[in-house]
Design a protein that fits this description.
Shape: globular
CATH topology: Rossmann fold
Number of domains: 1
Bound molecules: NADP nicotinamide-adenine-dinucleotide phosphate
Strand order of the largest sheet: 3-2-1-4-5-6-7
Distance between the termini: 35 Å
CATH superfamily: NAD(P)-binding Rossmann-like Domain
Number of helices: 7
Number of strands: 7
Order of helices and strands: EHEHEHEHEHEHHE
Largest sheet: 7 strands, parallel
Helix content: 40-55%
């Protein structure tokens, strides 16, 4: 079975991606919360799949290289991300740094560890979970939206660099998804949002594209904030 590494797999969208890809892949599940990863691995095993938990901070470049370097991965899903959504003048340096480190710089650490093997084997998918905030702006998004804009520039450049080596680079950009990322009070108790499983389905679709076909960007939105699901 091919192997898929999923970062931010302890909850939310990453967890749903890990569960969905477990139908067709052995999962390497990455996040800091080892206990949540252990429960995910148990759940995947109970449905006949395989999942190896790797408790790891993706902002720690040395730890990422030690844990993931040399792994023969067919799919890498860079999903881990954080959002501190507040006006620029209220953002602390630590909050700014954390968003840049997790949402952007960790892309370097994780992709750098896994990509050489894909290029050598001339096979692989690097999927990055972006956001609609990656091509739009909103109040409270100075840093978060900027990191997601950066994701698009990184992904398109990398795509151009490695496509001829047989490696596909894609970005799946969701709209609002019901996860812990935005607490219910910020969502106004709404029930129109995407579910994490909806985003997972898009990632599975990208990875399942026929060889020779590259789905580089996918935008997934809830149909309408005015229409409860
Ligand atoms: N929810 C939305 O509305 C929405 C919309 C568009 C895009 N997105 C994007 O979707 C991705 C997932 O978001 P989500 O909604 O699923 O958020 P979430 O429920 O808060 O989950 C975030 C995941 O990232 C992991 N993570 C955070 N910092 C980490 C670190 N330093 N090292 C390793 N893992 C780390 C967390 O695991 P640990 O805490 O265990 O480390 C967790 O598994 C993010 O990139 C986000 O920007 C979300």
């Amino acid at each position: 079975m091919p192997t898929a590494i999923v970062t931010g797999a302890s909850r939310g969208i990453g967890r749903a991606i890990a569960r969905r890809l477990a139908d067709t892949h052995e999962i390497v599940a990455v996040a800091r919360d080892g206990e949540a990863l252990r429960l995910l691995a148990e759940e995947i095993a109970s449905t006949g799949g395989a999942c190896r938990p790797v408790a790891l901070d993706v902002t720690d470049g040395d730890a990422v290289a030690r844990a993931l370097g040399g792994l023969e991965a067919d799919v890498l899903v860079n999903n881990a991300g954080v959002g501190v959504l507040k006006p620029f003048l209220e953002l602390s340096p630590e909050e700014w740094r954390r968003m840049v480190d997790v949402n952007f710089t960790a892309l370097f650490h994780v992709t750098r560890a896994v990509l050489p093997g894909m290029v050598a084997r001339e096979l692989g998918d690097v999927v990055i979970v972006g956001s609609i905030a990656g091509r739009s702006a909103f109040v409270g998004g100075t840093c978060y939206a900027a990191t997601k804009h950066a994701v698009l520039g990184f992904a398109e450049s990398l795509m151009l660099e490695v496509r001829d080596a047989g490696v596909r680079v894609s970005v799946v950009s969701p709209g609002s998804v019901a996860t812990d990322f935005s607490p219910p009070k910020d969502r106004g108790g709404v029930d129109w949002q995407l579910r994490p499983e909806d985003v997972a389905e898009s990632v599975a679709h990208v990875v399942a594209a026929p060889r020779g076909v590259l789905v580089h960007r996918v935008e997934v939105r809830a149909l309408s904030p005015k229409r409860p699901r």
